[in-house]
Design brief:
Distance between the termini of chain B: 64 Å
Order of helices and strands of chain B: HHHHHHHHHEEHEEHHHE
Mean pLDDT of chain B: 92
Number of strands of chain B: 5
Number of helices of chain B: 13
Strand order of the largest sheet of chain A: 1-2-3-4-5-6-7-10
Helix content of chain A: 25-40%
Strand order of the largest sheet of chain B: 2-3-4
Radius of gyration of chain B: 26 Å
Oligomer: heterodimer
Strand content of chain A: 5-15%
Largest sheet of chain B: 3 strands, antiparallel
Number of strands of chain A: 12
Low-confidence stretches of chain B: 1-8
Helix content of chain B: 40-55%
Radius of gyration of chain A: 18 Å
Strand content of chain B: 5-15%
Low-confidence stretches of chain A: 278-307
């Protein structure tokens, strides 16, 4: 049995709840360990998305993952947003609430992107202060994710891994280690992703993210539009070994295939933890249901976003009759 | 403290600078020379490496372009998803031109993308081209597009806004059982998802055809009145006559049933309809509307 990390349990292998899979999940109740939901898609919803979330939350453990907290922004903290986030977490009995180490806008604007922070002492103090405020409002430990980034600042005085380590130590927050983001950012910044994984405080990692990305030759873009590539699985194996294993979630947000394809992809994770961790036996079903072939056209049930747009992209369109 | 204030100011400057650079409509290179960006960090394009480092494979400007390209692409994709009928009618190039202008005039200020298009119709009205040869008051192509935006935005708001799925609705028999003497001074409480639209084109038929993957012709102008609501979390619409529209509008506004009918009757008579004909129709209309779940309750005049 894997002990709880910072009080948060290891939920197993989960998936991001996406609109195109609503009906399948409600009708079939697939044997997924848990679901992660995009907070902003539900915190104001009084329609079908919120109704579906309530149904799903009755059947599965739920974790909330946000894209608009803007923890690094120099704009004032948006308390209205935080109160809605807290209320949604209470209503869905979300096990934890996460967002990204980034900022999304300034001067009252929201770019709806996860923008990079210069890793300086003052940015660290600023982010840490805001994490404390957020944790007070949410009345729980915040979990923060390393984003995919495409630039580095000349002003930075420390590596990202050190920033994350000191931020977590100063505030008590947990970390959501996005293994794909480590791979993407390290490729883009000429850094060693294995060294990154070794450098973070493993005892503070509460959750892993896995996803696909787009290789543009000179750089990688975090598009969440395909399978997890083998080098990312190798990083996952190392991260799993160093942390002892934590809740693992697959994100698939563009060119989303049918639910069984997405589910099979996350189940592959068992193959990368089994040899490292005696408590986890390889699951025959997962091995059998993990196709390696390229995605067939009919597997793609809904193309929300053209490949090439970095995540996040979260929007639920109206259903109409 | 001085040092901390200085460095925090620097963080704010970097953020304002980066936002100015990646949201500039003419791209990163133009943005770097813009007064908005240089007011924050006065660095010319050839010294950009003092702010953003290059990688072994990409220049600093190329790296910034990932964010700049993503900014508009992401938001345009959201608008494509929300306005499929406008996208079909206008074509991607025209649609993106309109949306690009909109995003510059009304950049997102909300944590949620569901607010992104709130002022899209207003923007199209404000920037509507005026053809001097166009007869005054006659509907034309820009009106068609504005009507489409109003309709599709209305669908979005009703889809995710407050509904009546968890409320007890008024049934037809509740209306029939209501004491006739009290009827005129009673008020009907409508469901929160009921909205009315007055349009210059029958864009609802066009939008439905697009959502059904058809390739409809552009319709001719025709004054159109709609009721849009939600049943079991799915948006639905009803075509109304002008008299029905006026009647429902008065009821939604909280007028008594009597004064709402009076308003409708006046309009019906102006349109050449007899009061008897209207009286005949009213029973059917209220029955249809209560079956469609338009009403939550009937408020007794003395309650």
């Amino acid at each position: 049995m894997i002990p709880a990390r910072l009080g948060y349990p290891n939920l197993g292998l989960g998936l991001g709840l996406r609109t195109v899979h609503y009906q399948h999940i409600l009708d079939q109740t697939p044997s997924v360990d848990w679901f992660e939901v995009i907070s902003e898609n539900y915190m104001d919803s009084q329609g079908r998305p919120r109704y579906v979330l309530e149904q799903v939350a009755e059947r599965y453990p739920i974790v909330m993952h946000g894209v608009s907290m803007s923890i690094g922004s120099t704009d004032p903290v948006n308390f209205e947003y935080l109160h809605k986030l807290r209320d949604l977490a209470r209503a869905t009995k979300a096990l934890w609430v996460s967002d990204h180490v980034c900022w999304t806008g300034v001067a009252g604007r929201n770019t709806h992107d996860l923008l990079p922070i210069p890793y300086t002492e003052q940015a660290l103090a600023h982010v840490s202060e805001r994490i404390r405020i957020v944790q007070d409002v949410l009345e729980r430990r915040l979990i923060l994710e390393n984003p995919s980034t495409y630039v580095t600042f000349a002003d930075s005085t420390m590596p990202e891994a050190e920033f994350l380590t000191r931020m977590a130590e100063a505030t008590g927050c947990g970390l959501l280690l996005d293994v794909n983001n480590v791979y993407v950012s390290c490729f883009n910044h000429d850094q060693d992703p294995f060294e990154f994984i070794r450098s973070i405080p493993h005892e503070r990692v509460v959750q892993f993210h896995l996803a696909g990305h787009t290789n543009c030759g000179t750089h990688l873009i975090d598009t969440h539009d395909g399978r997890v590539i083998n080098p990312v699985w190798d990083l996952y194996r190392l991260a799993h070994q160093l942390t002892g294993g934590v809740s693992t979630l697959l994100e698939w947000d563009a060119r989303i295939p049918a639910f069984p394809v997405v589910h099979a992809e996350v189940l592959k994770a068992r193959n990368y933890m089994a040899s490292q961790l005696p408590g986890f036996a390889a699951d025959a079903r997962s091995t059998a249901s993990a196709p390696e072939s390229p995605l067939e056209a009919e597997e793609i049930s809904h193309g929300q976003h053209e490949p090439g747009i970095p995540q996040p992209a979260t929007y639920a369109t109206a259903e109409f009759e | 403290m001085t040092s901390q204030r200085h460095e925090l100011r620097q963080l704010a400057q970097i953020q304002r600078w980066l936002q100015a650079v990646i949201t500039h409509p003419d791209g990163v290179e133009a943005a770097l020379s813009s007064s908005e960006a240089r007011a924050e960090i006065d660095v010319p394009p050839d010294r950009i490496e003092e702010v953003v480092e290059p990688s072994t494979r990409r220049t600093s400007i190329e790296r910034l372009e990932v964010y700049a390209n993503a900014y508009y692409a992401r938001l345009l994709e959201c608008l494509h998803d929300e306005f499929p009928a406008l996208l079909h009618a206008a074509g991607e190039e025209v649609f993106d031109g309109l949306a690009f202008g909109y995003l510059q005039s009304y950049p997102s200020q909300s944590y949620t993308l569901s607010e992104l298009s709130r002022q899209f119709a207003q923007y199209l009205e404000e920037t509507r081209p005026r053809d001097e040869n166009e007869p005054s008051g006659e509907a034309s192509w820009p009106d068609f597009m504005i009507d489409l935006v109003r309709l599709e935005r209305c669908y979005s708001e009703i889809f995710d806004g407050p509904g009546a799925e968890r409320l007890t609705l008024l049934r037809g028999e509740d209306l029939r059982d209501f004491a006739p003497d009290d009827w005129a001074s009673a008020r009907l409480i409508c469901v929160p998802c009921l909205r009315l639209l007055s349009l210059r084109y029958p864009v609802h038929e066009y939008a439905t055809a697009v959502r059904e993957k058809q390739d409809p012709d552009l319709p001719d102008p025709e004054l159109t009145w709609l009721a849009v609501s939600r049943i079991n979390y799915v948006v639905r619409r009803w075509t109304l006559t002008r008299v029905q529209f006026e009647l429902l509008e008065a009821l939604i506004a909280g007028q008594t049933v009597g004064s709402a009918i009076e308003r409708a009757a006046k309009l019906a008579v102006e349109s050449g309809e007899s009061v008897d004909q209207l009286a005949e129709s009213l029973r059917d209309w209220f029955a249809e509307w209560s079956a469609a779940g338009f009403f939550l309750a009937i408020q007794h005049p003395f309650s």
